[in-house]
Input
Amino acid sequence: MRHFGHIAPEVRERLFHREPRVFTADSSPRMLAAALGATLYSPATRPRLADDVLKLAGRGVVSMVLCLEDSIDDAEVSGAEDNLVRQFADLAERVAAGAEPPLLFIRVREPAQITDLVRRIGPGVALLSGFVLPKFTEERGVPFLEALTAAEAPAGRRLFAMPVLESPELLHLETRTETLAGISRTVDKYREHVLALRLGVTDFCSAYGLRRPPDMTAYDVQIVASVIGDVVNRLGRADGTGFTVTGPVWEYFRHQERMFKPQLRRSPFLEGRADELRQALIEHDMDGLLREIELDRANGLLGKTCIHPSHVLPVHALSVVSHEEYSDAQDILRPERGGGGVLRSAYTNKMNEVKPHRAWAERTLQRAEAFGVAREDVGFVELLTAGLPGA
Output
């Protein structure tokens, strides 16, 4: 699989200076963590789940979570587990016939579900990349990770964990520091199994009876922004001790009555179908999503939890490395720059300071492997337009 692999090769060639790399479920954890992109959640109760998975893969989705937790009613869990077993069997048959699914994860409620589902899914577990672990703390997380480790042998394959950081103990100021320390101890101990950390911002808001409107981002809700900052501070460091931390879910996908002006300027949307695209983004409240994606990256997050297919393309388009970013990163990481120093960027619009900007440059090239590098005259509008149906 590869990002933008669903669009025609000649279109990719026109868009990319360096195309996204091909990867598989067996690629390195470093590559997979960077390539998760828009991780689309789907309730495990859907009766045609296998159809949905393959259809979405054909539209550019590269990672999905099949959810047994908050997206379904408590009374539906047993039936949803049975459905997953059937759907994985169906998927296995289709993959044998040449179908290509995305990376698949199951979000469970209890540790025992991990070993039980691996046993019940049987050969279809070859299509499973791992499990999403809810409300993760040191106390609750260890049993999940022990179960995942125990399930690898019968699965006959590597299984990853994606803990969700969403517990009240992490949100509350008086328990946050120790909770973060405990999470850090736990994920460090099981580092080889932890692919990425996910943020459960909806649960954070719930603890205070809050819900951000579609014209505001998670970073406008100060109590949420403070938790994101502390999580990245402790768990997202660029010194080799950190993990990939993914962006929070965007809840909206239909038009709402607006209080504030749209946040998308007209100037990038002046050619071809671009103005039509701008209006569609505004009408579906995605101008707020685009702003939040940019703020995610500025705050050290990569990838995003998504609950609607329409969110996938914006996340991926804004994850592509610009030609200017790529040029700066390459200049900073040239071997002859190992001693440090300051240089003017090739675009002559900024200072690149070799030592302070090195970690940024390394992360930028890692993102370039997963999402590619745009040509010099290609921006996010062209990438969004090219990925639309019928483009």
Summary: The domain at 21-319 is CATH 3.20.20.60 (TIM Barrel). The first strand starts at residue 16 and ends at 18. The mean pLDDT is 91.
